[in-house]
């Protein structure tokens, strides 16, 4: 009986060690991934065909302006700084687009840290979690969402081709260590797939510390 209790204790401590190690690994990986990208989140007024179509028009106009003002940006921090200085411009573009297309509701533009689901861009996948983003809510914001990565630019990636431009991948690699880059790009390694699923699981259970935007 004493030997059995000892074995149970060892198994318990081993399980606890594995859980704690996984917890710290997932938190660090999620934090580093969050700090490597800046995302765009557009929420339609409703799920009607008209509102959904407008969402994409607003998106295209915002990204076009974003590419203009951030053409020479070389880091996420610089991109966020530029966006911060032009928040009112983004709101004006969204509202002008809404009005030009015959709608009367308004847009709300916000810069912050928001929760995102798992999302795939070509051959790059980002696990669910909290990411810094420019969020645009159209009207009642009761419609389906649209997401993309503004920095490095993945917003115009052709997801049907399954290929992300090398330039965008290089930007990601420069901002992540080798392990973290494998997490979002290596779909063949079984251990990497398992770690990716762990990140998703911990995020879904609310076990990952949410980092707030500053």
Present the secondary structure layout.
Layout: H1 2-34, E1 38-43, H2 49-69, H3 76-85, H4 87-100, E2 107-116, E3 119-121, E4 124-126, E5 129-138, E6 145-151, H5 166-175, H6 178-185, H7 190-204
Parallel strand pairs: 1-5
Antiparallel strand pairs: 1-6, 2-5, 3-4
Helix pairs in contact: 1-7, 2-4
What keywords describe this structure?
7 helices, 214 residues, alpha+beta, two-stranded antiparallel ribbon, disordered C terminus, 18% strand
Q: List the domain count as a whole number.
A: 1
Shape: elongated
Average of pLDDT? 81
**Based on helices, strands and strand pairing, what is the structural class?**
alpha+beta
Q: Write out the strand line-up for the largest beta sheet, numbering strands in chain order.
A: 2-5-1-6
Strand tally: 6
Order of helices and strands: HEHHHEEEEEHHH
> How many helical stretches?
7
Distance between the termini: 55 Å
| Biggest sheet details | 4 strands, mixed
Report the sheet-strand fraction. Answer: 15-25%
Residue share in helix: 40-55%
Residue windows where pLDDT falls under 50 for at least 5 positions: 210-214
Radius of gyration: 20 Å
